[in-house]
Amino acid sequence: DIQMTQSPSTLSASVGDRVTITCRASQSISDWLAWYQQKPGKAPKLLIYKSSTLESGVPSRFSGSGSGTEFTLTISSLQPDDFATYYCQQYSGYPKTFGQGTRVEIK
Amino acid sequence: EVQLVESGGTLVKPGGSLRLSCAASGFSFNIVWMNWVRQAPGKGLEWIGRIKSEGDGGTLDHAAPAKGRFTISRDDSRNTLYLQMNSLKTEDTAVYYCTTEGWEPGPFRFWGQGTVVTVSS
Question: Do A43 and B64 touch (CB under 8 A)?
């Protein structure tokens, strides 16, 4: 199975900060990587797929990059609505595995 | 508008069985690959399994914790996805989500609101 490791597990930041979350795959997954945002009590929401393609309707302050085994999600200017937990997911092969999540909290 | 509505979650005793349903609307259900994902209380997301469309053979793939105990099926005439869970364990306690994958391997674009399964004596 492909293991996905996110860092950090928790991130404290202020509104307006630039935030970067890293996701590492245990083997190459090309660019078959998605990022999701989840708020408490809600289903996850797709933000980015194919490593860097923004899902329709997602604000442009979100961006993704990387290929192979190393990926990043960047929020260019953190907004109040962005405090949430973020998950990466590889869909290169089965089982489709998620990272353990990164909680972005208010500093 | 795409809608996925899960149902069937409840309190069940260890060793028991349960069938979850996911009613889909707003898209061509019969051509879309569907998945189940779960989330234990306070934990991350865990993929359970996927069923391809009948046109793509209806192939199933399950994660290791589900193999032999959980079975995914679909009824395209009812636009409904199912998850049959047998021999339930306390560690199966979670929110269970159904998700769409499209018609080829890809991300999970649409999610239901989830249904809660509690396994406890």
Answer: no
Long-range contacts, stretch A8-14, CB < 8 angstroms, 24+ apart: A8/A102, A9/A100, A9/A101, A9/A102, A9/A103, A10/A102, A10/A103, A10/A105, A11/A102, A11/A103, A11/A104, A11/A105, A12/A105, A12/A106, A12/A107, A13/A78, A13/A104, A13/A105, A13/A106, A13/A107, A14/A78, A14/A106, A14/A107
Provide the shortest C-alpha distance from residue B21 to chain A (in Å).
16
pLDDT tens digit string along A42-82? Answer: 999 999 999 999 999 999 999 999 999 999 999 999 999 99
Spatial CA neighbour of A45 closest among A54, A59, A33, A35 = A35
Indicate the DSSP class of residue A55: P
Cβ-Cβ contacts under 8 Å, B50 against chain A: 94, 96
Q: How many CB atoms lie within 10 A of CB A33?
A: 28
- Bridge partners, residue A106, by sequence: A13
> What's chain A's average pLDDT?
97
Q: What residue type is assigned to position A68 of the chain?
A: G
Q: How far is it, in rounded angstroms, from Cα B98 to Cα A40? A: 18
Name the one residue in this structure whose structure tokens are 């900060």: A17
How close, in Å, is residue A78 to chain B by CA atoms? Answer: 23
